[in-house]
Amino acid sequence: MKNTLWIFGDSLATGYNSFVPNCLYPKEIWWSHQLAEKLGMDCINTAGSGNDRFQILTKWLTNWNDIKEGDIVIYQIGFKDRYNLQPLNINALDLPYELMKDKKLENYYDGEYGFSLFNKVVLGWGKNIKIYFWNVYEDWSEYEACPNKLLSPNGNKSLWEKYLWLDESLWIFQDGREDRHFNETGHSIIAESFYKQITNE
């Protein structure tokens, strides 16, 4: 029986492509499934489009009892400025400015439902399972305690200046329109980069 590669994150951890049916590439294209094949593992990808940090954490809490010894976890630190109001799934950035200007909601998420909770239930989990972390945002500061950081293919931790980890040629373009998610080549490059980092090649 194979061990499992577990993925937690948002659309960047999936095969999202707004220009194809169902907005998803076939799973064999996703970097997560390519990586699992390279590692000789099954893949369970819990990531979802638009997930904020708390939703990613909720997926973790839903699945953590099923993660077993020998499995590998890749946990994406979600976007800092994305807040979906639970349980309504309303993006807080769509709310009137008056509700956001004092940043009470941001403090709430970065406090009780921010790093402190993450620190308890992810970093303080206690199981002997290898967890790797990746972050498409430029700021690792509040999550600097995370071990096993996966770097971008160009070796940087701070990647937001170009929006994604990869060169623009690896974004999705169609008919002059841009979808800032990985194209097929981008998925392959990420899978190979993560494989080398995980196996120390």
General description of the model:
The protein has 201 residues and is of the alpha/beta class. The chain has a single domain (4-199), classed as Rossmann fold (3-Layer(aba) Sandwich). It has 5 helices and 8 strands. The protein has helices spanning 31-39, 53-63, 97-100, 104-123, 184-199; strands at residues 4-8, 42-45, 72-77, 84-85, 90-91, 130-135, 171-174, 177-182. The strands form 3 sheets. A 4-stranded parallel β-sheet has the order 2-1-3-6, sandwiched between helices. Strands 4-5 form a two-stranded antiparallel sheet. Helix 2 packs parallel to helix 4 (104-123). The longest helix has 20 residues, at 104-123. The radius of gyration is 17 Å and the shape is globular. Residues 86-105 and 157-164 have low confidence and may be disordered.
